[in-house]
Amino acid sequence: MTEARSKFNNLYVPGLFAVAQEAYKRHADTWKKVYSVRSSSKAYEESSYVSGFGYLTKKPEGTGFTFDDRIQGPKKVWNHDAYALACRITEEAIEDDLYSVMSQAMKGLGTSAAATRHLIAVRMLMNATATTYHTCGDGKALCADDHVRLDGGTWDNLGSAAAPTTATVEAAVAAFENIVDHRGKRYDQKAKTIVCGPTLEFTMAKILESVLVAENANNANNTLKTRRSLTLEIESEITDNRWFVQGTKDPDIGLIWFDRKKPVTRRHGDPDTGDSIFSIYTRFSNECNDPRQIYMVPAA
Questions:
Q1: What is the sign of the dihedral through the CA atoms of 242, 154, 193 and 254?
Q2: What are the tens digits of pLDDT across the range 248-300?
Q3: Which domains does the chain have, with CATH numbers?
Q4: Contacts of residue 8, Cβ cutoff 8 Å, sequence gap at least 6
């Protein structure tokens, strides 16, 4: 018994874990196109932000300067949650495995880890107007029409429900690029990416990539292509017709993902039964303090 268990642990298991790691690596992490992904070595991460200054004031000759103060923003904490899954495989099952059933079990754990991280990442987008799982620093949902400015005003990154057309995409891009900062100045950002689910893939591709406007026969140039060249990102876990406009990712604001522990596989034996227990474990967090780099158009 001991020899058989030793042979299993030392020779067969590494092959199983190679399968698990390979399955994880081959699962597309498309959500990383939306998030700034960073690593963490702490129990938690936190961030805050400070407003800029307001506009300059006119200074008549001989008069003093007008003084202004920056404003401290709210603090947001990234608490790293742990996710794990395990399976138990008997020694006899390994011994009699002629059809790679055991290696497929390990592949399944690797795929489950990748799929879970993917689902949690996109959950923020699928609940963008709710505070069920996430709130921004101002206590609002990721996308809201009443985000709080530090100077007491408001700003929004939520449009009206609309199906994608050239006109609605142009309007969303314009609204995104006119978001203001915490002192009312235009934020000065450019739309870079349209993010949507598979149900809108072909419609949005025609709108963004056609040389001429897709919806009519007027032979008008498609300025979304010639002036913006927006990238289209298809996110498989977006399951309805909502869509998003996103700017250049910033490692300090917007949607931020912290990896405290990337998926790791482990094994240990049960001395009473000879069974081996295989597990996969990961720890991460995803939050957003200041959501100015994303704008949502709800499904029509």
A1: negative
A2: 888 788 999 999 999 988 877 888 888 888 889 999 999 999 999 999 999 99
A3: 2-48+79-297 (3.90.1690)
A4: 91, 94, 95, 276
Beta bridge partners of 272: none
Average pLDDT over residues 206-210: 90
pTM to 2 decimal places: 0.85
Question: How many residues comprise the chain?
Answer: 300
Instruction: Report residue 18's pLDDT band, with 50, 70 and 90 as the boundaries.
Output: low
- Tokens, residue 86: 């395990």
